[in-house]
Amino acid sequence: MENNKKHQTVNPKELFNPTPYGFAHSISVDSPFQMCFISGQSGGVGENHNLADDFTTQVQNALENMRIVLQSHSMTFDDIVKITLLIVDHTPEKLEIWANEAKKVWNNKSLPTSTLIPVTQLALPGMLFEIDAIAVKY
User: Rounded to the nearest 5°, which phi and psi values hold at 94?
Assistant: First the structure.
């Protein structure tokens, strides 16, 4: 963790090192409350960012990566107030897969606001899904 008087950058060791690519996994801002801005998390697993071939597995892995980042800030999915979803070649079936996986982590309570952006490709070949988030803890 890097410490800065205005914010704290956190790159969990369980995830790949994003610094060579010009970004951080997350930044936390302390005020009267803690705010955390989380970079897009893909379905890549571990330091080598291994991607499964199927959309469902990538969504599940991206949510696990999000959980890892949240945990590094002592936060949970319930602290997330805003998400942005990027889906390659978006379809109603992919939206249904996303909705089913989201219901598992949020249990239909404390649902965040959301924007879904269909895209033709993401940063790396094989990436099918990406989610970023803003979390607030009082």
Answer: -70, -35
When pLDDT is averaged across residues 37-66 and rounded to a whole number, the result is: 96
Task: Tell me the C-alpha distance between 21 and 38, whole Å.
Answer: 15
Radius of gyration in angstroms for the set of CA atoms belonging to the chain, rounded to a whole number: 15
Q: Are 136 and 79 in contact (CB under 8 A)?
A: yes
pLDDT digits 0-9 by tens, 70-102: 999 999 999 999 999 999 999 999 999 999 999
